[in-house]
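*** Residues and shapes ***
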Amino acid sequence: MPPPTKIETAYHEAGHAVLAHRSHYVRIKPTSSVSIVQVDDEHGGVDVETDPGAPSTTDHRMAYEMAIVGAAGFSAQRRYLKDNNELINDDAINAGARSDANGVREYFGARVFFEFVHAVEFRFQYNEVWEQVVLLAEALMKNETLTFDEVEAVIGPR
């Protein structure tokens, strides 16, 4: 099973970042960056956290939002492959998203990850959401790592 390509990783991380940026409950850590640089076994990354300004909500709702952001990388990578008529190997994508999927499974149980993937695919049907993913992935291909401010310059403020 080959590792994801650089462009696949860019879409994967852009998916996480865009949905975290659009959430009312979680956010990209303002002191972090979005990157497609491989470190150890991870092919990239974006750090998200609970938004301290989030509306009051239940722990379950917060976990749901984190799961949506977690599934967004898988969904964005899968959509990129589909849109470009490339072979979609869910097992290979899932191997690359194992930490994302494991985080979802820890809270919600096994076999639920793909329910979140489908929920994210629905959100990506909105053109403005998918356009932000594409713009951010393109920026990551040029620069490999973007600061929080650079992410906002590409996709706009929250």
Notes: The longest strand covers residues 26-28. Residues 59-83 form the longest helix (25 residues).
